[in-house]
Write a structure and sequence with these properties.
CATH topology of the largest domain: TIM Barrel
Largest sheet: 8 strands, parallel, barrel
CATH architecture of the largest domain: Alpha-Beta Barrel
Strand content: 5-15%
Helix content: 40-55%
Number of domains: 3
Order of helices and strands: EHHEHHEHEHEHEHEHEHHHHHHHHHHHH
Oligomer: single chain
Mean pLDDT: 93
Bound molecules: cobalt (II) ion
CATH superfamily of the largest domain: Aldolase class I
Strand order of the largest sheet: 1-2-3-4-5-6-7-8
């Protein structure tokens, strides 16, 4: 970058604001309600963000399960409020917003309805970076005239060389993606690596590059700085009350960092300050109610040592607590990279983070590795989640899979073997259907959605409406 030419080479960096999705998913257990979001939407719409990420990821599940809200209704309300700003969602490839691969007809219908209800940009990723698991969603997004962004899950390991990333980026561009995101969910991308990576990507592809990282290990704002200096087009940040810690770098801080340079975002700090004032009490309340644990607010260097996403660390700890085995925490953390290697060294992100984490807990608590294998571990080894960058450990395959299971191992795109399921799902749930989108809520989370539908019906008929505890999802069914 040539600072002397800054006048002739103005290249403002674009900002994607995450406070309505990733930031509260990372810091408030995804519990921000639509009611908490709506009063500030008008101001946020005036900022001039490149996009606001506000839907998908865990928010869909959390709406139905804990908040007793219809996620589709949330999306429509946000769309009504954001008249000038693009809305972005996070989409787990063939797993949509769930934890298993779905048939193509469900994926296509979900994309169609997401866009019809107001989404502009769909960020699509796969936990193995198996691009076959992204193609249906990308093609469907193109067809609906949405913006298909493919996110590569960033991780470390001997297979993940610069060549790996540039080769993947080329394939992402070729498959019809409109932009590429590097999704560093664990905060592993350090500043000078980011510089190299972004340079290499910019030399390889023409589509815009976006960087998504987390503050967990404490380096994220420096990483964004080096990435922008290297040509990164868009960065993900969160308004300061829900920034840092396990979330993203702070929007205001990054805006100030680039002020007066060729990368100047042009965003108005006064307006941002008003928005921050709105969210600050939400942070304070969350600390008081213990929803936000101040422990997650510092730099966690274990992230760099164990390469485990922040959310996974807290999940492991709570699994061990349940078993009364908190003293095994360090042992389990050391087991995680070994299990990851046995399973073909995938990135650790939903659902592979849960699969590797749970198997690591079993391996330690049983006192013998793979004495018990979870169904998900077996499914991974049978190819049902797709292809990993490295082969599986053959000794582990021998120990875990029966001869019959080995014979059922697949190498094709997993969804090729899943029959269309939309019609069957619709007939299963038709007594609850009040809008087309209900079929999709049920497809992803049959039990949780049914409980929500029952709750909704009770609300509408006025029966027991004082039972509703919308904050804690404690409605007894
Ligand atoms: Co994230």
């Amino acid at each position: 970058m040539n600072i002397e030419n800054s006048n002739s080479e103005v290249k403002p960096v674009k900002i994607t604001e995450t406070i309505l999705r990733d930031a509260h998913q990372s810091m408030l257990a995804t519990r921000m309600t639509t009611e908490q979001m709506l009063p500030i939407v008008d101001k946020m719409d005036k900022v001039g963000y490149h996009a606001v990420e506000c839907w998908g990821g865990a928010t869909f599940d959390a709406c139905l399960r804990f908040l007793k809200e219809d996620p589709w209704d949330r999306l429509r309300k946000l769309r009504d409020g954001f008249k000038n700003t693009k809305l972005q969602m996070l989409f787990r490839g063939q797993n949509i917003l769930g934890y298993r691969p779905y048939a193509d007809d469900v994926v296509e219908y979900f994309v169609q309805k997401s866009i019809a209800n107001g989404i502009d940009i769909i960020r699509i990723f796969d936990c193995f970076n198996d691009l076959r698991n992204l193609q249906t969603a990308v093609t469907a997004t193109n067809k609906e005239n949405g913006h298909a962004q493919v996110a590569l899950s960033y991780t470390l390991g001997e297979s993940y060389t610069l060549d790996y990333w540039t080769n993947m980026a080329k394939r992402v561009e070729d498959m019809g993606a409109n932009s590429l995101c590097i999704k560093d969910m664990a905060g592993l991308l350090v500043p000078y690596e980011a510089e190299q990576l972004v340079h290499a990507l910019k030399e390889t592809v023409d589509i815009p590059i976006e960087l998504h990282t987390h503050y967990t290990s404490g380096v994220a704002s420096m990483t964004l700085l080096k990435a922008v200096e290297s040509g990164c087009d868009i960065i993900d940040t969160a308004m300061s009350p829900l920034a840092l810690g396990t979330s993203q770098p702070a929007t205001e801080v990054m805006v100030e960092t680039f002020k007066g340079t060729e990368f100047d975002t042009g965003l108005d700090q006064k307006l941002l300050a008003q928005i921050a004032d709105y969210f600050r009490p939400i942070r304070e309340e969350a600390i008081e109610s213990k929803l936000l644990n101040p422990k997650v607010l510092g730099a966690n260097i274990k992230t760099l040592l164990y390469q485990v996403p922040g959310g996974m660390l807290s999940n492991l700890l709570s699994q061990l607590k349940e078993q009364g085995a908190e003293d095994k925490y360090e042992e389990v953390l050391a087991e995680v990279p070994r299990v990851r290697k046995d399973l073909g060294e995938p990135p650790l992100v939903t659902p592979s983070s849960q699969i590797v984490g749970t198997q690591s807990v079993f391996n330690v608590l049983m006192g013998e590795r793979y004495k018990v294998a979870t169904k998900e571990t077996k499914d991974v080894l049978m190819g049902k989640y797709g292809k990993t960058v490295k082969p599986f450990n053959p000794q582990v395959v021998d120990k875990v899979l029966s001869a019959e299971e080995k014979a059922q191992t697949i190498t094709c795109r997993p969804a090729d073997l899943i029959e269309p399921e939309l019609h069957k799902i619709e007939s299963e749930m038709k007594q609850w259907k009040q809008q087309d989108e209900d079929v999709l809520s049920y497809a992803l989370f049959p039990q949780v959605a049914t409980e929500f539908f029952k709750y909704r019906q009770a609300q509408q008929t006025g029966i027991d409406d004082n039972v509703a505890d919308t904050k804690n999802g404690a409605y007894p069914v």
